């Protein structure tokens, strides 16, 4: 039996910076209580200071199972459940072609971007499976008994993939590209495994967004890279992190209860 939704709770990894921070801020504007998690605890605390709703800042290293488990435990101790999660923590790694790429840079990118997302899914889903399903608007479904027998939702998760998770393009390094393809594989598999239990798993595929990650890459790139990055987009510009945040909040929301295993491009026409 599904219960009625109270104020929802969201957990955002990598929310000390960039897309994760913008998404935590947007979730808070929408009334969500927020668990703001990052390996850089100080930056997570700064994000927490930007929020108007209840929240906690948590240190997490997404490459370590004990740390990810502790993050989920901290969220549940504070708020009792996790309705939504956005797994945004990620790194770009070395900006080099394959021959010049150091092996340890490959390992680190895979550790954070692939194992990190897998560990977050593992512990977030384990928690969501223990939760009672909730229904936001039962009246909306009252006259549609055949649409779905199970209408409550236990949780909704969004993973940060990338346009580079769908195809490579100039400036993208091979380990990063491969890691973001892998995020889509994790997303689709998790979505299939837990669809019947009322857990949705989707991904966002932004192209290039104006975040510290992008500006760090631009510093290492040849002059004129900013213009080249903008001109790669039919829209003629890169994205604001807030534009990615809006898409994440929509995917997590009750606006799309039958959408799972999907990826949403936020790519200015690419
Ligand atoms: N910026 C872009 O153009 C772009 C495009 C497509 C996809 N993405 C993806 O979106 C996500 C966010 O990117 P961003 O641009 O906001 O980057 P960012 O560097 O601004 O923020 C990433 C955050 O992740 C945290 N982090 C790194 N390693 C961690 C770890 N082991 N455990 C916990 N936290 C860790 C960092 O401390 C940082 O706060 C990443 O997964 C990135 O690959 C970014």
TrEMBL record:
It comes from the Eukaryota. Keywords: Oxidoreductase. SUPFAM superfamilies: NAD(P)-binding Rossmann-fold domains. One of its GO terms (molecular function) is oxidoreductase activity. Gene3D superfamilies: NAD(P)-binding Rossmann-like Domain (3.40.50.720). InterPro entries: NAD(P)-bd_dom_sf, Sc_DH/Rdtase_CS, SDR_fam. Belongs to the short-chain dehydrogenases/reductases (SDR) family. PANTHER family: SHORT-CHAIN DEHYDROGENASE REDUCTASE (PTHR42820), SHORT-CHAIN DEHYDROGENASE_REDUCTASE FAMILY PROTEIN (PTHR42820:SF1). This is 2,5-dichloro-2,5-cyclohexadiene-1,4-diol dehydrogenase-like. It comes from Branchiostoma floridae.
């Amino acid at each position: 039996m599904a219960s009625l939704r109270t104020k929802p709770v969201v957990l955002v990894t990598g929310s000390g910076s960039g897309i994760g921070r913008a998404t935590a801020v947007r979730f808070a504007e929408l009334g969500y209580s927020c668990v703001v998690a990052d390996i850089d605890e100080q930056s997570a605390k700064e994000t927490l200071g930007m929020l108007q709703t209840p929240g906690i800042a948590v240190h997490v290293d997404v490459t370590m199972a004990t740390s990810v488990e502790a993050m989920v435990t901290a969220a549940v101790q504070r708020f009792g459940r996790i309705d939504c999660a956005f797994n945004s923590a990620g790194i770009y790694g070395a900006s080099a072609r394959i021959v010049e790429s150091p092996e340890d840079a490959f390992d680190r990118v895979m550790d954070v971007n692939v194992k990190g997302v897998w560990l977050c899914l593992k512990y977030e889903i384990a928690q969501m499976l223990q939760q009672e399903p909730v229904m936001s608007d039962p009246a909306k479904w009252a006259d549609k008994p055949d649409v779905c027998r199970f209408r409550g939702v236990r949780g909704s998760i969004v993973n940060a993939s990338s346009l580079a998770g769908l195809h490579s393009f100039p400036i993208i390094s091979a380990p990063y590209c491969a890691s973001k393809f892998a995020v889509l594989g994790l997303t689709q598999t998790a979505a299939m495994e837990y669809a019947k239990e009322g857990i949705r798993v989707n991904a966002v595929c932004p192209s290039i967004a104006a975040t510290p990650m992008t500006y760090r890459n631009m510093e290492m790139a040849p002059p004129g890279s900013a213009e080249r990055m903008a001109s790669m987009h039919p829209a003629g510009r890169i994205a604001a992190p807030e534009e990615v945040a809006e898409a994440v909040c929509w995917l997590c929301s009750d606006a799309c209860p039958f959408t799972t295993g999907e990826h949403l491009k936020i790519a200015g026409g690419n």
